[in-house]
Amino acid sequence: MGKSLKVSMLITDVGFLAYWFIVLMGLLPSEFLYKDYDNPIMVAWNLSFIPLDLMVSLTGLLSIALFRRKSRAWLPLCIVSLSLTFCAGLQAISFWAIRGDFDIWWWLPNSFLIVYPLIFLPKLIRSA
């Protein structure tokens, strides 16, 4: 696992945990709320990402820990984590695109979730 992969995964995995803590505690500043934030359907849509995002963090952090312990099990977990990360970003971007809602503060992090796994997945899959 290269340094850039590990750093990207840590940013993503810890970022998801921090995001959900901030959301669930109601700490997100109003200027960063997405359109229709108080709409119950939008709230349900956002909360529906919790299981996916937590699986990203769990598999990613576990993959890093296994890599540090020199366990070969890190690689399949890393591939799963990156695949789930891609899916999370794609789902969010697809939703915003269908709505015709472009907010750079929501599109940038979700675009990162799509792009960075694509940089690492081909090599990881070949090495598996």
Automatic annotation (TrEMBL):
Q: Which residues form the signal peptide?
A: none
Write the record's keywords in alphabetical order, separated by commas: Membrane, Transmembrane, Transmembrane helix
Q: Name one Pfam family in it.
A: DUF5360
- Show the stretches that span the lipid bilayer: 7-28, 48-67, 74-98, 104-125
Name the UniProt record assigns to this protein? YvaD family protein
The species this protein belongs to is Paenibacillus montaniterrae
Q: List the top taxonomic levels of the source.
A: Bacteria, Bacillati, Bacillota, Bacilli, Bacillales
